[in-house]
Amino acid sequence: MSRFTCPYLNSEVELTAEREAHVLAHHPDLLPDFRRIIMETLLRPDQVRHSTRFSDAKLFSRWFEDLRSGKHVVVVVVSGKARHWIVTAYMARKLIEGEVEWKRK
User: Fold this and answer.
1) Which residue ranges make up each domain of the chain?
2) I want to staple 15 with a disulfide (CB 3.0 to 4.6 A). Which of 2, 58, 68, 84 is the partner?
3) pTM exceeds cut of 0.90
C-alpha cells in the first residue's frame, strides 16, 4: 500500500494494491508516471469536486500541459470515518462530473 499527502484533506490518502492494479489495468494512459501524477494532483489540485456518483467521494483534478498534449488528471478519493483512499484515477479532456467545492485562484 502507498500513501500520499493531501493538504486539502489534512491527511494521508491510501492507494491499496488492489486499487493500484485497477488503475494500471483500466487507465494505462497514466503510465509510466502515474505515482508522480497522483502525488502532484493530491498535493496541488486545481479543483476539488463533489462526486455525483458517490456521496462520500471527492474528485481532485489537476491540468498537466505535458501529458498527452494537455489533459486533466482526476483522482477519486473516498473518505470514511478513519481513512481516505483512492478508488481510481484517470485522464480527462474536460471536467464535467460534480459540483466544484474548491478551486485554485
Assistant:
1) 2-93
2) 2
3) yes
